[in-house]
Specification:
Two copies of one chain form a homodimer.
Chain A lengths: L3 E6 L8 H13 L3 E7 L1 H8 L9 E5 L10 H7 L4 H10 L5 E4 L3 H12 L13 E4 L2 E6 L9 H19 L5 E6 L9 H12 L4 E7 L10 E3 L2 H26 L3 H19 L9 E3 L5 E4 L6 H16 L2 H8 L5
Parallel strand pairs in A: 1-2, 1-4, 2-3, 4-11, 6-9, 7-8, 7-9
Antiparallel strand pairs in A: 5-6, 10-11
Helix pairs in contact in A: 1-10, 3-5, 4-5, 6-7, 6-11
Chain lengths: ~325, ~325
């Protein structure tokens, strides 16, 4: 196995740089083929590394004095902050000096930067952003949840294939069940885009297409790859996150509302934690942006060290399995 | 207050006719202005009523020998089963012999039937289907979650106004906050439909429009009326239901996985039940289909008596507040 060179944005996310650097340091002994480049303000990164032991031949610093904040308008930020940890990191991927880029920073800037700095694989019409959500039976890939709305059927056909290849090779799901996000399970349902896409997906021989899926069936584990345009995908993703957050917070409230409940909560907690562990997406790293010449991974904004560490593993798997070559071959793209 | 004549479909839903009839009987003493017509197979309805006491001048049976099953193709079912409880009930609304129709049966057939049998108010371009979902701070109306996808901006403008009038007058939310379902809070985000609709909603002076809402913020209570085309609305609704169902079932699993947890669960249960009670949508009746010449209400398929009873109250409120007249006046529709 060859070395995978990964830029990790030390300045992105709520817990930067502490947890980001911690995650990178945890990854190095786990993945002997990883070469990590921490991009960020040199002093901040050096301070984070000081006193830590690490293989110095596999960790370097990319000095980037600027930082793109989460609230900044993405296009402007990417265009003007040339010295930011994000832009400098993505430039390394563009130039082939790095294979992959991981950030917990601004989603918008990451999507814009991935597209305009790293650039698409020849023949890929749109690079989808594909977060993994946990379901009752394992992880599911929601592809696309990016910023490019108003998709065409040909985009969705490529998303289906890229998603299937990714889940099979990087996440390790054999013959992933690919489904089209729709408002009913019946063939005749859906909007104009769905009706145009459905027969095209049925024709594909290189994916295990199982037809429509209703959003209701995703959390129960109805499909491994859920294909959608970015607008619907985003709504599905955000509703998933919103319901989970609100429900868990209400349950917590209920469990601490009386003395009796508090005692019960103490007893219930360990088992509950164990069950809900399977609902932790951080095990799969971050959300990949696929179809670019290098891999761009966006973790949750509040990512802790473990998510960064797992994202490093995700990048290595992606490189080792030569995902981009598979895209070109299996999707019949021109070289 | 005048009498509200309500047809209740005794044959629709998982718990028909038992719970449906039970709900109707519970409603009669609560709502002295309700006149209920139970539509369904006469023998089945009579069997359900036998031995019960009720004001016989306010309850009648509409004999309907046919039943539309949930799985049937809606358009065909509505066209061919003229003697079904659904078609015969909707025909009464069409003819003005009843004000409203309540069913726990096939959503598809209800939407199709509402549209082609009851018919729209003059000037209403599309009748939206608007379920209420519970949030951390109260109920929110998702409008539209119906079957008519590929909406136009003018449809969404009408949905916003109808939703606002409904929530203010039937559910009792003062100056309901109306938001447009989008994939980001920023003004420039969204697909072509959103971009066209946004300025039109800003111009409306008869609603309290608060801008975009991300799906993530709906369960936390970010808006009272969430405006959307039926495709996105359906996905939001179904994802809401799916996550809640899966998460609660996983939590239940965790709580019974060890002896220790089981004991804790017993202690926690009463408080948890109390907290989660606010997440029960059945208090608001069923999902109204708005903009028709009469009110059509679809409850959950697994509705119990209490949801049917509350749906009766919802129909009475709708009639007493003269919602359809308000639509015509406040939306400037031609009489």
């Amino acid at each position: 196995m060859s070395v995978t060179r990964i830029v990790v944005d030390a300045m992105g996310g709520d817990n930067a740089p502490g947890e980001i650097i911690k995650g990178a340091l945890e990854a190095l002994p786990l993945y002997p083929d990883a070469h990590i480049i921490l991009s960020g303000r040199r002093e901040a990164v050096e301070a984070g590394l000081s006193g830590k032991s690490f293989p110095s031949d596999r960790l370097e610093i990319l000095d980037a004095p600027e930082v793109i904040e989460t609230g900044e308008p993405p296009v402007k930020a990417v265009r003007t902050k040339k010295e930011s940890s994000l832009v400098k990191g993505l430039m390394m991927v563009r130039g082939g000096e790095a294979d992959a880029f991981i950030t917990a920073g601004s989603s918008g800037a990451t999507l814009v930067g991935g597209q305009i700095i790293v650039g698409r694989i020849r023949g890929i019409e749109r690079p989808p952003f594909a977060p993994i959500i946990p379901t009752a039976t394992g992880p599911a890939l929601l592809i696309d949840c990016g910023a490019n709305v108003d998709a065409r059927a040909s985009h969705l056909v490529q998303f289906a294939q890229m998603g299937s290849i990714y889940m099979e090779n990087v996440v390790g799901i054999r013959r992933p069940r690919v489904a089209l996000l729709n408002i009913g399970a019946e063939e005749e349902k859906g909007n104009a885009l769905i009706k145009e896409t459905m027969p095209l997906l049925r024709e594909l021989t290189n994916i295990n297409f199982i037809g429509n899926i209703e959003a209701r069936d995703i959390p129960a584990g109805g499909a491994d790859v859920v294909v959608s345009d970015a607008f619907a995908g985003n709504i599905a993703l955000k509703m998933y996150e919103g319901v989970a957050a609100t429900l868990l917070s209400e349950i917590k409230k209920g469990m601490t509302s009386t003395l009796r409940a508090k005692i019960g909560a103490l007893l219930v907690k360990p088992a509950l934690k164990e069950t809900l562990k399977s609902f932790d997406a951080s095990a799969y790293g971050g959300a990949p942006m696929l179809g670019l010449t290098g891999l761009v991974v966006k973790t949750h904004g509040n990512a802790k060290a473990n998510e960064i560490r797992n994202a490093v593993g995700q990048c290595i798997e992606w490189k080792d399995k030569a995902i981009n070559d598979r895209f070109v071959e299996e999707m019949g793209l021109k070289k």
